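forwarding from the other thread:

> can someone predict this with thiamine diphosphate?

sure thing
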Amino acid sequence: MPELKKIASQVRRDIVRMVHGSASGHPGGSLGCTDFLTALYFHAMKHDSSFNMDAKNEDVFFLSNGHISPVFYSTLARSGYFDIKELATFRKLNSRLQGHPATHEHLPGVRIASGSLGQGMSVALGAALSKKLNGDKNLVYSLHGDGELDEGQVWEAALFAAHHKVDNLISTVDINGQQIDGTTEKVMSLGNIRGKFDAFGWTTIEMNGNDMDAVVAGLDQAKSLTGKGKPVAIMMHTIMGKGVDFMENDHNWHGVAPNDEQLKKALDQLEETLGDY
Ligand SMILES: Cc1ncc(C[n+]2csc(CCOP(=O)(O)OP(=O)(O)O)c2C)c(N)n1
Ligand SMILES: [Mg+2]
């Protein structure tokens, strides 16, 4: 467990340094989802950093809320998919680390373009069904923002998943109550998200997404619920900007880079554990 917390601290440093380095990008959701991505890649998933697009005989993850690419890229690099030095190219011209992940750049670890919200669950369903057809017992994971749930395609996918008993899929919703222009309550009220997934025929659990022990336990529990005829959804409660006090719970940090002074303040709060890139 201390190991996972150490990794998460370094990933958070990477996030603020990457976004500062390009003076653009999305730190808020990235910091909130750091514990989840860390636990997913360093604990829950069976995956191979030598990377092939087909993901046969391994688990596979799709990031649907592609704007939180900083946390995804850092986790991939720290897991050995590519050199951590490449994180310094984030959002630079000709970089493989585009602001929103794209497949055209062939960055190891990225299997779909995302950023246009609402599509990741549909892709995950295709992958999950093909695993079933191929007799591949591994799991498919997807991550979605709560604001992303405003997209109708998510609910079409949710219906389909239950109808077709896609029980090798674990979809997580990052419930931080914030999105681009304010709180989710203000922009478009989501009501009872868990109740909605329950009504759509999913097995659901709740999890504190910013407590590493809870994230590990939640992912283990979700895995134990697969293979029982229903897709599994994790209601993951997080704080936007988690780990950097002045970014926490503030939608203004959804997609804004820290300036030099703010970067220093942020890094003072995040221990360097594995070495900066
Ligand atoms: C289809 C589509 N519509 C609108 C946007 C613009 N947009 C980018 S992020 C975002 C808010 C997403 O909120 P949430 O998923 O809660 O992410 P968080 O702010 O919590 O990181 C919006 C509306 C988009 N990327 N794609
Ligand atoms: Mg949100």
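The chain has ten helices and seven strands. thats all i got for now
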